[in-house]
Model the fold of this input.
Amino acid sequence: MRLIENWFSERYSDNLQLSFRVKDQLLSIKTDYQRIDLFDTYDFGKLLSIDGTVQLTEKDEYVYHEMITMIPYYFNKKPKNALIIGGGDGGAAKRLLKLNFENIVNAEIDQNVVEVSKKYFPEIASSFNDKRVKLIIGDGIKYVKNSSEKFDRIIIDSTDPVGPAEGLFSEEFYRDIKNHLTDDGIVVTQSGSPYYQEGALSLAYKGLSEVFSNVKSYLAFIPTYPSGLWSFTMASKSEFTVRDENVINGIYFNKDVLTGSFYLPEFVKKIIY
Amino acid sequence: MRLIENWFSERYSDNLQLSFRVKDQLLSIKTDYQRIDLFDTYDFGKLLSIDGTVQLTEKDEYVYHEMITMIPYYFNKKPKNALIIGGGDGGAAKRLLKLNFENIVNAEIDQNVVEVSKKYFPEIASSFNDKRVKLIIGDGIKYVKNSSEKFDRIIIDSTDPVGPAEGLFSEEFYRDIKNHLTDDGIVVTQSGSPYYQEGALSLAYKGLSEVFSNVKSYLAFIPTYPSGLWSFTMASKSEFTVRDENVINGIYFNKDVLTGSFYLPEFVKKIIY
Done:
């Protein structure tokens, strides 16, 4: 009887961690940008970690990917094309395809994320085989500086604002983003755990507010992310108006969530106002 | 240099755990009803655990206690008196006192919980020194069978539906509760993590629906509880109507939360409907 147990732990601080019992570690690589690890866990299926933080698990990825795509989808004019910055796992693109986007540019800086996802999350990465998706391996910051195409939605599906993703939370980047948005287009970014990473939410909200006149943060519950509470922040040049349209349910998302996720607890309001 | 680290872990399943680094374990007792442990943690201050599950930490107890008292407070006629079943730490009673309740009966089955709270959470347990609070050490199930007093609010602040609290999730108990409610009175119960304890929410919602014509579940984010998402379920003989009244902010609770916490993600709706 083998009594040794294998656990992968994400440290939320020096003094707090969430641990997943794993069947095996399937991969560990150091790329030019970050460290990528892949675990086969008992409770959440395959788990992708970047620099020690959980990015994606088979079992609960639906919350993050539904919420970063479906919430902004239902506002303003029906969107047809999108730019995804980051999102190398293909999960955001996959949801946009389901929402009948016709043209998606996905700029991921680290080719290895795409390769790992194709190998270990083939269903999620299947979006890269769709001819409506154009994958660009390159720096999203440079891409928005050096191109001119306009998009109805821009999705910043990045890691946290340390390391390669730091520039994706800057005012300068948001100004370049603005140049790529159609008139009533919407940009949305993941903005971290309001409980453990006040800084990410504050950076995103304040940075976007310098550039856009309409900014809104919303929340979702993600069990494998720090504290279980996650924030997203979206911005537009024009006012946000929910379209009068039947809403498709996800596993997490529904019409109630489209309304309710914008009601913020007092401690979250204190971070952004 | 001492390299050994001390951690307390709550197992959410055989394969998942949240761990708190602790300065010390201050107490461990086995009572007639349960095991009580008390830790001094680095990130969350003092932490009370019952049968290995986190009940209360100094740093985030406000969410649970605000949400189990303040949400039902703002519905229907302004309440004046309340029965708390469980709640031996004094936290629910403390919030009710802040809301100017005039008369509170608190029935806690385990005297040790009260003693531990008085010693380690004196600020929270201070409610037991207030003459508006009548503490009864005894079984809440028997109390509602053998008494006749009516209350505007009944708060079931229990542990999870295993062990001593199992009967607090039964239809029979809810029928006895109904006899103790004023005409537009409201009962509220904690109903577990919708993500890891579907059973608790389902039991509470379905049991209350057998007895009451008006039942509503609502959610809050609690970082030290399993998955970070927690549910509460409230019921009444009369329809729920929010009073037209200024809402007092808590650290978590506010007017937005009073509305937004009732908007449920699709996977939660699937549990209760």
